[in-house]
Amino acid sequence: MKTKMIKIIYATAMMLFFIGSMFAQSVGINDNGSSPNSKAMLDVSSTTKGLLPPRMTYAQRIAITNPPSGLMVWCSNCGTYGELQVYNGTAWTNLIGGAASGLPDAPTIGTATGGNTQAFVSFTAPGFDGNSPIISYTATSSPGGITGTLNQAGSGTITVTGLSNGTAYTFTVAATNALGTGAASSASNSVTPAAFAIGQAYGGGIIFYIDGTGQHGLIAATNDPVVAQMGCVLTSIPGTSTAIGTGQANTTLFVNGCSEAGRAARICNDLVLNGYSDWFLPSKDELNLMYTHKNAIGGFVSDFHWSSSEYDGTQAWNQHFGDGSQDFAPKDYLRYVRAIRAF
Q: Checking DSSP bridges between strand 27-30 and strand 42-45, what pairing results, if any?
């Protein structure tokens, strides 16, 4: 019994010796029988096969807790075609040491401004987009968690609707790429949406009309820049209307139907003022609303102003801003021009 036990101990010792000897030497994996390089613990060589590291999605990679320095994986949905990534002890990098593909950094928050049950939140795109193009940005309110989205890659302004007038909100903005949504920005300034009002400075001018929704209306420029003819006296511009909400369409008809430069509709159509380029000449009824609220708007000359509503082939509607009378006049008469825009 004692002799048998001695043999077992000896056999075990020899096995451990051979195992230790094997792992102390270089190991080669190849298909040609060559010896491994003595400087390498593991030497893999082949002319027909490659080396495959662990393959996983971005979500699986970020689920690895406390990765050791030097850990290497192939992120199958990172970048455009996938990416070999290494953990450097602090962060994941790509194979050449740059930032590994991942979620975009947080955008830089800009200024938030309020409107009627809405806010406009500006931001600057993050410096790192996760090495994957940013698809969209989302602004989120606090309180309420109400969101607005802007589907573009660069900086901009997000409109968040559905807010409560009189409630103070702050906003954060986060960027989304193909891998998901990154960290949110810091909080914006506090802003309190308020209902639009006649006479309010907004959108490059002064509000003089608000529709039934309370969300949209018309804005007047703050001065009468020029006097001009309507133009094309002998050319009829069919299809113009006198109603509220038709000034833009009327202006487009005049611009397309009359090629004479420096005429009233074209002046408004080409105007760029206070950062806006969508101005137009008001219709007859829009012009009358401007007269009604002329004191709130300000800057009117007490004289005739053109509308974009044609009366007949040679005449168009105009209105006097002294007594409020509306009349029609030949298109080659000089009248004041006041541009408006919609919001």
A: parallel
CB-CB contact of 257 with 237 (8 Å):
yes
Which pair of structure tokens corresponds to residue 300?
A: 């009117």
CB atoms within 10 A of CB 203: 19
Residue with tokens 């195992």: 19
CB atoms within 10 A of CB 90: 7
SS in 3 state form for 296-326?
Answer: HHCCCCCCEEEEEEEEECCEEEEEECCCCCE
Quick: pLDDT tens for 240-289.
Answer: 999 999 999 999 999 999 999 999 999 999 999 999 999 999 999 999 99
Decide: 335 and 262 in contact? Cβ < 8 Å.
no
Q: Is residue 173 a contact partner of residue 184, using CB atoms and an 8 Å limit? A: yes
Cα 214–chain centre separation: 25
Whether the CB-CB separation of 100 and 131 falls below 8 Å is answered with yes
Count of all residues that appear for the chain in the document: 343
pLDDT, one tens digit per residue, over 230-242 is 989 999 999 999 9
Q: Cα-flanking dihedrals φ and ψ of residue 256, to 5°?
A: -75, -25
Tokens, residue 175: 């960027």
Alpha-carbon span 286 to 201, nearest angstrom: 18
- The pTM score is 0.58
Cα 54 to chain centroid distance, Å, stands at 37
The conformation of residue 99, written as its DSSP 8-state character, comes to B
Residue matched to tokens 């094997």:
22
Closest CA to 182 of 120, 114, 99: 99
Number of H-type helices and E-type strands within the chain: 6, 22
Pairing of strands 201-202, 180-181: unpaired
CA atoms of 42 and 21, how far apart (whole Å): 15
Q: How many whole angstroms separate alpha carbon 283 and alpha carbon 326?
A: 12
Euclidean distance between the first and the last CA atom of the chain, given in angstroms as a whole number:
102
